[in-house]
UniProtKB/TrEMBL annotation:
Residues 7-88 form the Core-binding (CB) domain. Pfam families: Phage_int_SAM_4, Phage_integrase. The keyword Nucleus does not apply. It comes from the Bacteria. This is Integrase. SUPFAM superfamilies: DNA breaking-rejoining enzymes. It comes from Sphingomonas parva.
Length: 300
């Protein structure tokens, strides 16, 4: 049997890894950045630290001609800007990279009834509790996957989210209904000996590892199909639905911003465009004009 040894890491990649770790970039971000730099090097056919301004231009033309979508192009720009400006100290090359503008689509949102059907169809109590946490607390799927048992504070009715997006800690809401669901899972998990004290709240295939985001994605797709929901549903759809349903309940958008962990209000304001009850409750200018003309309302 042939023994396979791991491929050695080049000094350039090692330097970039150190630069990213020193600046606190998340592991997922580091993997993405390395992948895009590797793709750039494959396009060049030579080490990426030998790139010229014309090479950068050719690479972006190649992306456009090959049909790369705007999110992919912009992710590559972020990775290469870091590589050029930080690792190579070549800000002149970083400035050559061009972001692609694209229309922002409205998020898919489920009705309350659809969310109920989806959770009922979840493949097992663990996944129902995990997806219920995405919807019930508005957490990102990566945040739910890495929750620890000790992050559930039933005394203060809060969920502690450590090192969320942007490496920020925050508190999320814990409703009585969600707490009851989590307690059901806690009792089941303890009975099956997969929940350890101070361990992962949602362990993966091994109780020493957290549930993966891929497993949660697969679970939500299975549940949506079983529930007969034809919309394109992902775990993030439940987070969108959380925000939209709160807005429909007249919760202040600034409160929703805090609950979602958004740094900018503009990001949260997107949900105002899909909150149907909020839209229906607005009195249109033609209705007000009619009321003024009929003398039912003073002109102002």
């Amino acid at each position: 049997m042939t023994t396979q040894f791991p491929r050695p890491i080049s000094p350039l990649r090692q330097r970039m890894l150190e630069d990213m770790a020193m600046r606190g970039l998340r592991e997922g971000t580091q993997r993405d950045y390395i992948r895009f730099v590797r793709s750039f090097a494959a396009f060049l056919g030579r080490p990426p630290d030998t790139a010229t301004a014309e090479d950068v231009r050719r690479f972006q033309v190649h992306q456009a001609e090959s049909g790369a979508q705007a999110p992919t192009v912009n992710s590559a720009v972020s990775a290469l800007r870091f590589f050029f400006s930080v690792t190579l100290d070549r800000p002149d090359l970083a400035r050559r990279l061009v972001l692609t503008r694209y229309a922002r689509k409205l998020p898919t949102v489920l009705s309350v009834e659809e969310v109920g059907r989806l959770l009922e169809a979840a493949p097992g109590l663990k996944y129902r509790a995990a997806l219920g946490t995405v919807y019930g607390a508005g957490l990102r799927v990566s945040e739910v996957a890495t929750l620890k048992v000790d992050d559930i504070d039933s005394t203060r009715m809060l969920i502690r989210v450590e090192q969320g997006k942007g490496r920020k800690d925050r508190n999320a809401m814990l409703s009585p209904q969600l707490l009851a669901l989590l307690r059901l899972w806690w009792r089941e998990g303890r009975r099956r000996s997969v929940l350890l004290p101070h361990g992962w709240l949602f362990p993966g295939r091994s109780y020493t590892d957290p549930l993966s985001t891929r497993q949660l994605n697969r679970a939500v797709h299975e549940a949506a199909e079983a529930a007969g929901i034809r919309k394109r549903v992902t775990p993030h759809t439940l987070r969108h639905s959380f925000a939209t349903h709160l807005l429909d309940q007249d919760v202040d958008i600034r409160v929703i911003q805090v609950l979602l962990g958004h740094s900018k209000l503009d990001t949260t304001a997107l949900y105002a465009k899909v909150a149907t009850r909020t839209i229906r409750s607005v009195t249109g200018p033609l209705e007000r004009l009619a009321a003024v003309m009929e003398g039912r309302e003073p002109a102002g």
